[in-house]
Amino acid sequence: MSSIVKVFVVSPDTRSERRYDLHTTVEQLKNKLEPVTGIPATNQIISILESESASRAIAVLNDDTKQLGFYGLKDWQVLQVADSNPSLSLTGQLGDVSQVQKFELSDAEYEKRADTVLTYKKIHKVGRFAPEDKNQDAEQQKFLADTQVGARCEVESSEEGLHKRGTIRYVGETKFSKGVWVGVEYDEPMGKNDGSVQGEKYFVCRPNYGVFVRHDKVRIGDFPVEELDLEDEEM
């Protein structure tokens, strides 16, 4: 049985996925979490939750000498890190923008400006201002004709050696952007949604397992499920 657990770490200012050895002591864990959460190890109050929406903690890691395994920590449970003295570390204040004066610009005023991304796209014919590519359209049509929901696939990744594999759950147009999008359910929680975008449901999967990509980022094939081999770092 593996001694490594995959968990979510949440604090007032952060959220990440981590892997820890069950033989790690609470004191060692706190030292690891200090640079992750910004909360000093001596101020950390760590609770185990079944999920982020859970109202009650399963356990509180209140003995620095105990190992994580003592508390029965399991995969995909939540380590909730609170700050016993937030006034010293500014915990929870980094994301408070209520006192920041907002700068607002109307759409008409924005379009008149010459120093904007919109103007750059118009001049250089980028994005929706780009001329239609007939070859790309033909490739897209071929992809639509050859691809079926339920097919195994691999999504292009910029990280060397990382295989982002999953199953195609949706192919077609969407309300959030023009053109054809491919909805993929990843084998691992490397996605951005649960098959919904902006309140519209396109397919169903677990949170953080769903993603939408363009067809040219997807390869169809008999790709087996591959377990991630990650160290003690953010996934």
UniProtKB/TrEMBL annotation:
Domain CAP-Gly intervals:
172-214
* Record's subcellular location: Cytoplasm
Determine if tRNA-binding is one of this entry's keywords.
no
Q: Name one GO biological process term.
A: cytoplasmic microtubule organization
Q: Provide a GO CC annotation, any one.
A: cell cortex
Q: Which UniProt keywords apply?
A: Chaperone, Cytoplasm
State where it is primarily located: cytoplasm
Does the keyword Cytoplasm feature in the UniProt annotation? Answer: yes
Q: Name one GO molecular function term.
A: microtubule plus-end binding
Q: Could you tell me which PANTHER family the record lists for this protein?
A: DYNACTIN 1-RELATED MICROTUBULE-BINDING, TUBULIN-FOLDING COFACTOR B
Q: Which family does it belong to?
A: Belongs to the TBCB family.
The name on file for this protein is CAP-Gly domain-containing protein
Could you tell me which species this protein originates from?
Answer: Amanita muscaria (strain Koide BX008)
